[in-house]
Design brief:
The chain is α+β, with helices and mostly antiparallel strands. The chain has 13 helices and 14 strands. It folds into 4 domains: 109 residues, NusA, N-terminal domain (N Utilization Substance Protein A, Chain:P, domain 4); 81 residues, Beta Barrel (OB fold (Dihydrolipoamide Acetyltransferase, E2P)), CATH 2.40.50.140; 76 residues, GMP Synthetase, Chain A, domain 3 (2-Layer Sandwich); 49 residues, no CATH class. The strands form 4 sheets. It has a 5-stranded mixed beta barrel with strand order 4-5-6-8-7. Strands 1-2-3 form a 3-stranded antiparallel sheet. A hairpin with a 6-residue loop joins strand 1 and strand 2.
């Protein structure tokens, strides 16, 4: 019987890809704890399993007096055989529980090693089960993922990765992105019921889902000719995608939309009707903000880089379109561009500018300090002398000479000299 048990263990190790020595070592440790409690052994027990026959031996540990260290702990123990007669029954009970735990943990470790480097990748799976809190999706045989949609008002630490309004049926095929893979050896506190839940966590609300769907539908994005610069998304309702072409001859928006909208329509279909706006990215912030507010037409964009502020002026009939339903269009444009956007119509903007006091600018001094001034002499006819003043004087050479003479007649006679 014992040898048959060992053969069954070895076959299980081969099937589940578990190290045989590791499994037997775990069984010995588990049995040692159990027998120490059953036999009331003060210093614990040691259990060994014969690798050939499967026979179990239990040893009582008795400390050796001379082996006490500086901290008062014994380092060496004498092993006394206290193997009971019913070891097989107790071993079978513990072996079942321990093997299940080892198999489960080994499978989670293998999944973690395979999928931990694939976070952000898209997967296609089949819905196995849907509960009020999460949906179990089968990726392949033996590998399952969890799509959580917890009520975060009740469970603050849980995720909600399902777009509003989506429901999943049994055997339905869905696409999602991997956002997390739970590490079975992590020392962090586990989430509620983590060990009984699939180790892979997927999402249908993450912006990476749109990026991967575009890569699958649009060869230019997959090849790198067209880049996705930014994505803003309100899952299940509307998204904006900013694209840029590395080839000046290629229209990135046209490449993403496709003939008669066929390419973007495939993405919208997978997102179950979520509206997707493809926006042309621009290095100029003003042009980028104007494009992001599409389909609204923009009259002018004022950029304040210090405050990260963009003031947008739109025609009166475009204001509601620019803001969108419940502010959705403006909100998505702000997320897409990273600018705080303030939208005003032309009438309101004109009223604001009309009430702003104008600060007069100082008159420009047309005569620099280096240029000589004109003569200060003015004749009876009101005409000023056109000559330049002498250095250190307000008059030219003619009128400066006359100014030192007595009488006004000298200045009057000098009128003919101008």
């Amino acid at each position: 019987m014992a040898s048959e048990m060992m053969e069954a263990l070895m076959a299980l190790c081969a099937e589940k890809h578990i190290d045989q020595l590791y499994l037997i070592d775990r069984l010995e440790q588990s049995l040692a704890k159990s027998y120490a409690e059953i036999l009331h052994l003060d210093w614990g027990a040691k259990v060994t399993i014969d690798r050939a026959t499967g026979k179990i031996y239990v040893y009582k540990l008795v400390p050796i007096d001379d082996s006490m260290d500086e901290e008062g702990n014994y380092t060496e123990f004498e092993e006394i055989d206290v193997t009971p007669k019913d070891t097989s029954r107790i071993a079978a009970q513990h072996a079942k529980a321990e093997i299940n735990a080892i198999v489960r943990n080994s499978a989670r470790e293998q999944i973690y090693e395979e999928f931990s480097s694939r976070i952000g990748d898209i997967i296609t799976g089949t819905v196995l089960q849907s509960t009020p809190d999460f949906t179990i999706v089968k990726i392949r045989e033996g590998v399952e993922a969890e799509l959580p949609h917890f009520d975060q008002r009740r469970y603050e630490n849980e995720r909600n990765e399902r777009p509003h309004g989506e429901r999943y049926l049994h055997n339905q095929r869905i696409k999602a992105v991997i956002i997390d893979v739970r590490d079975p050896n992590s020392t962090l506190p586990p989430v509620r019921g983590e060990h009984s839940r699939p180790p892979i966590v997927i999402s249908r609300t993450h912006p990476a889902l749109i990026r991967r769907l575009f890569e699958g539908e649009i060869p230019e994005i997959y090849e790198g000719t067209v880049e996705i610069k930014s994505i803003a998304r309100e899952p299940g309702q509307r998204s904006k995608v900013a694209v840029h072409s590395l080839d000046d001859r290629l229209d990135p928006v046209g490449a993403c939309v496709g003939p008669k909208g066929s390419r973007v329509r495939a993405v919208v279909s997978e997102l179950r009707g979520e509206r997707v706006d493809v926006i042309l990215w621009d290095a100029d912030p003003a042009a980028y903000v104007a494009n992001a507010l599409s389909p609204a037409k923009v009259t002018r964009v004022l950029i304040d880089e210090e405050k990260n502020y963009a003031g947008v002026i739109v025609p009166d009939d475009q204001l509601s379109l620019a803001i969108g339903k419940e502010g959705q269009n403006a909100r998505l444009a702000a997320r897409l561009t990273g600018w705080h956007i303030d939208i005003k119509n032309e009438t309101l903007a004109a009223d604001i500018l009309r009430n702003v006091p104008v600060v007069p600018e100082p008159a420009e001094d047309l005569l620099s300090d280096d240029e000589p001034e004109r003569c200060a002499y003015v004749g009876e006819n009101g005409i000023r002398c056109r000559n330049q003043a002498r250095p250190g004087s307000n008059y030219c050479g003619v009128h400066d000479t006359l100014s030192v003479e007595d009488g006004v007649d000298a200045f009057e006679d000098a009128e003919d000299l101008i």
